[in-house]
Write a structure and sequence with these properties.
The protein is mostly helical and 247 residues long. The protein has ten helices and no strands. The protein folds into two domains: 31 residues; 212 residues, Orthogonal Bundle (MetI-like fold), CATH 1.10.3720. Helix 3 packs antiparallel against helix 4 and helix 5 crosses helix 6.
Length: 247
């Protein structure tokens, strides 16, 4: 697909989203949502307010911790379960079942275990993001080509040589895909954690807007979060495509 085609598709998709958004505003009115252009203006006003940025910093710090833990633990556990086939076959349906559980139901447990504050937000982010990373990594390791493994044995490579030159390049595309999914879900988990277990952060601002019926605040903060998530996910998707293309 050419760059021009991708740009055209993106432009059409953006126009459709804005049109649907405007239609929703025309139907529901300002009691439920603000108009697209007004929301962009409100978001711009928020970005120039000094008191807004501590909330951004709180969310980004919790997200950075949560995603780092999810990535390291998810890849490590995925590799371990992929190498140990029996353990992986036992763990996979359990992880898939846990993945389908609405994580909000675990809020009381998280609150009792971690209390209010940073720890609860990070924990909520981790339980959202770590499982898809584990599943993608485990699948990549389990589906390694037997030819690659025979090549490692025939060439008598050391463990480090096998990992760095054969195994890691082979599983990297699927691992990146898992990290991309985990990135979005970790951010979602942190925001949900801030709604329930924090006095600062973008999620806290959103729930405050809902509780105070401050539609402008709620939609403006939501727009900022969505734009950040879409931009970051687009960069990860570009990296994912680049790695798959040069595989």
């Amino acid at each position: 697909m050419s760059r021009f085609t991708r740009a055209t598709d993106l432009a059409v998709f953006t126009i459709v989203i804005l049109a649907l958004w405007q239609c929703l505003y025309d139907y529901a009115g300002e009691v439920a949502i603000t108009a697209p252009m007004a929301t962009f203006r409100n978001a711009g006003d928020l970005l120039v307010k000094p008191e807004f940025w501590p909330n951004v910093g709180a969310t980004m710090l919790a997200f950075a911790y949560a995603f780092a833990i999810s990535a390291v633990a998810g890849v490590a556990l995925g590799v371990l379960l992929g190498v140990r086939r029996f353990a992986g076959e036992v763990a996979e349906p359990i992880l898939a079942a846990i993945y389908t559980i609405p994580k909000v139901t675990l809020y009381p447990v998280m609150l009792l275990a971690f209390g209010l504050g940073m720890s609860a937000k990070v924990a909520f982010g981790v339980i959202h993001g770590v499982i898809p990373i584990v599943l993608f990594t485990m699948s990549a390791v389990k589906n390694l080509s037997p030819t690659l493994l025979r090549t490692v044995r025939v060439m008598r490579l050391t463990g480090w040589q096998a990992a760095s030159t054969v195994i890691v390049p082979a599983i990297l595309p699927e691992v990146i895909s898992g990290l991309r999914v985990g990135f979005s879900l970790t951010l979602l988990g942190v925001l949900i954690g801030e709604m329930f277990a924090s006095q600062r952060g973008l999620g806290f601002l959103i729930i405050n807007g809902i509780n105070g019926h401050n539609v402008r605040m709620m939609t403006a903060v939501t727009l900022i979060v969505v734009l950040f998530a879409v931009t970051a996910n687009s960069l990860l998707l570009a990296l994912d495509r680049h790695i798959h293309h040069h595989r």
